[in-house]
Amino acid sequence: MYKIIYFVASLALISCGDDKDVISQNQDYDVIVEEEVAQTVKQIKELKTAAKVLYTLPSPLEMADLLFQSNVVYDVEILNDPDGVDDYFTDMKCALNLGVYFADLSFTSMFEYPLDGMKFMGSAQALSSELNIEGVFTEEIRMKIENNMNNKDSLMDIIAATYIETDFYLQENERPIVSKAILAGAWIEGLYIAVNLKLNQEDKMPIWHKIAEQKPALTNLIKMLKSTEGQDFDMLISKLQELELLFKGVVLNYKNKTEVNTDTINKITTLGTKLDVVITKEVFEAIKQNITIIRNEITK
Amino acid sequence: MRKLLAFSLVIFAVSFPFSSNAQCAKMGKSAIKNLLPFRSNGQLNIMVLSEGEIAELNIVFSGGIKYRILSKGGIGIGDLAIKIYDRKRVLVYDNADHSMAQVWDFENKTTQNFTIEVKFPVGDDGYNTVTGRGCVAIAIGYLQDVNSKSNK
Q: A190 and A196 in contact (C-beta within 8 Å)?
């Protein structure tokens, strides 16, 4: 393997015109160089192994669905202003708010308010254009949405496809900061919506539990942003770490080890454990206040 | 000269994954289609790995939702080894027990963090023999019952 790498590297040098030294190699020299190459490759491998940890977040549609299944009442007033796109100038601001609009679009569509959804689609389209994300919010997609306004399932599919197409484009064009900012914006808006929905007394606790269960996702989000090169996310990370401190007041008490049942015929494994969630009113209010500040800082 | 050679190797090795990101993204895109009827979670998890190298994907599975995990290696790469660990780092799934299946579904009852470990196969003939590296994609889909009720 190393011989092949050495050969390729040598070829690269030859092509640069530095051929005299390469040609004069002997057996001993080969061994020494191979050792050095092996050491270098080992160091590169170690560096790369250390970097091969990825984090994934629940999609905005998944978050919207969790709320939908919990009997909450739709409230467009808490969502971002669809006409606010003109206020976002930097790439970071545009990307975070594109995530916010994705979450708002998911929420309106999940609760079957397609006319509101069209407004957020327009906002997302405008920010996508600002960010030079091409070929995602096309006229064809817009037409598809218009034609499927009354077909919730198809609408959800179109939004999910648009969300992943955006990520494809950004990864293909090596723009991880914009990609991660969109994911962060969507997650923050999802949590913001969840804490700000008006709830009946009997619906309160199930929603609070869903909010509390976002604790590990917040940790993953912070780690994901920290893994990004540069200082673009430093300020956001600092704010999210304050939120993480408040989430320490949430207790996720797993009662037993994960039970695993596998159905090999249908290729499905069931994973289960008993979880007791403890979130007090004080902790909830502190989280609500903090995430509202973070989100409003993004959308202002 | 030796230092120059080692340096050139570093440049070669480090620059390779960046030049292949676009190819990896395309491969990941084709993998997503196989998630149906599950809906993609919207994130494309692609990595450039070397022979025998391991990558980890941290993900929170929400209680009451079904997930599909799909893995795909680049052209010529054999089946990827997939292991899943729960929050306590206890192994809950190993595709070696299921004929190295590259697609598997999970019905998750309680929200918790899982780690999906992906290992680039060792000793396969198919991967890029010059660089010993290749693309790996992990796609996550989830299934929801959107017509279960109306909150209007």
A: no
Identify the DSSP state of B34.
G
Residue carrying the six token digits 């993998």? B31
The first and second tokens of residue A110, run together, are 């999940």
Nearest chain A CA: its distance from B135 CA (Å): 13
Residues 21-40, chain A: which have Cβ within 8 Å of B? 21, 32-33, 36-37, 40
CA distance B78 to B125: 8
Task: Give 3-state DSSP helix, strand, coil % of chain A, rounded to 5.
Answer: 70, 5, 25
Which is more confident, A166 or B10? A166
Rounded Cα gap, residues A60 and B131, in angstroms: 38
Distance CA A150, CA A164 (A): 23
**For A169-183, what is each residue's pLDDT tens digit?**
998 898 999 999 999
Q: Could you report the per-residue pLDDT of B5-56, keeping only the tens digit for each?
A: 555 554 444 444 444 677 788 888 888 888 989 999 888 898 888 877 889 9
**Shortest Cα distance from A143 to chain B (angstroms)?**
21
Q: Global pTM?
A: 0.82
